[in-house]
Specification:
13 helices, OB fold (Dihydrolipoamide Acetyltransferase, E2P), five-stranded mixed β-barrel, binds iron/sulfur cluster
Length: 441
Amino acid sequence: MAKLHVITYGCQMNEYDSERVAGLLKTLHNYDLTDREDDADLILLNTCSIREKAEEKVFSKLGQLKPLKRKNPELIIGVIGCMAQLRQAAIMERAPVVDLVFGSPAISRVGELVERVKRERRPVLETGEAPLVKITAKPQSGDRLKAFVTVMEGCDKFCAFCVVPYTRGRERSHSVESILAEIRGLAGQGYREVTLLGQNVNAYGKDLDPPTDLAALLDQVNELDGIERIRFVTSNPVNLTSRLIRVMAEVPKVCQYLHLPLQSGSDRVLVRMNRGYSRGRYLELIAELEETVPGIALSTDLIVGFPGESEEDFEATVEMVETVQYDSVFAFRYSPRPRTPAAEFPDQVPEPVKAARLTRLLEVANRVGAEKSRALEGRTLEVLVDGVSRKDPRELSGRTRCNRVVNFDGQGRTLYGELVRVRITQAMPHSLRGELVDEED
Ligand code: SF4
């Protein structure tokens, strides 16, 4: 049987796509997954274009794969995903070791494309658009409790720094029926938590006939037996409606956690980023979320050193972290991406300035996150047990509804896949410690 090795870079959407590629190749072409690249007949690198650094990692990996190809000329090496869509010419030029390049829209055709490489014995490039296909094939994987489910692809927003509209195309929603069928299948296999994925997930359903929305979809997923928790990511503030906020409070299985990218706290920068909301509007949404969904946990994405960002603009971002009190922050230095308008802006910020700003922002974000964690001490939270603690395998581990990792003594019980109540005793830098609470307590 042929062997497939997949290396995934980037976001959860890519993790999901890699799983589906492996599932399709297993079901239709008999490829078994292997952890070892030196054992593989086919190596696929599922790539990310969000930052230049992510692309350089791929080129360096392709360099490392050269000796394998020399040893086994039959080995097929493919580059797939966002970078494949955006940078096919650079890939073929810099890495002649590559046999196959195709973007995310062609993922459902992976088997046919691999066969073409074998047949034609020359590199195959496929970066055109393709119809939206729901792929549900999924290989056996480690996590049997939590699954990602793509509900829509692409994005129409064209933020000035982002490549997604160019690599993943325009917003296209999967049908409600196909999503519910996929989740029913997952529940049948024992999965208990699903995360609905889309680059701009809260725009879900506008393009369907008849149109629908994410709030309605969450309500329908809530009805499915076996599934206990529902999350969704990534939300754009522009599409966050009062109806969706109410659903987060009222639909029992929807978790009280929201990742809401802010990107910058400065109105001037938000306009240049083409984000479509102001700092004031964002704060209004936060106030509505906190009032409607008490105890909601919030996380965000921030960019430092966007072209033209002044010290004052940057301080406005730091101030937002203090004001909103995020549970966690994902902050990055701005990285110019080909084809995006911001890459052409004349007022690029020097790298040392970006680095210093990032350090300062992360210091503040870590302090705020630690304070939020400490505020959980003494509270009793619902935990979905998903395994054992990484540091101490005698302890159990799981996640709260607000997405925090909790480690605790399971008192000799397995409890895998069960929802238990845990009293938080100590906030650690990256996790919480707790003790199991008996139901009678
Ligand atoms: S909304 Fe998100 S995915 Fe869409 S263009 Fe902006 S940053 Fe990119």
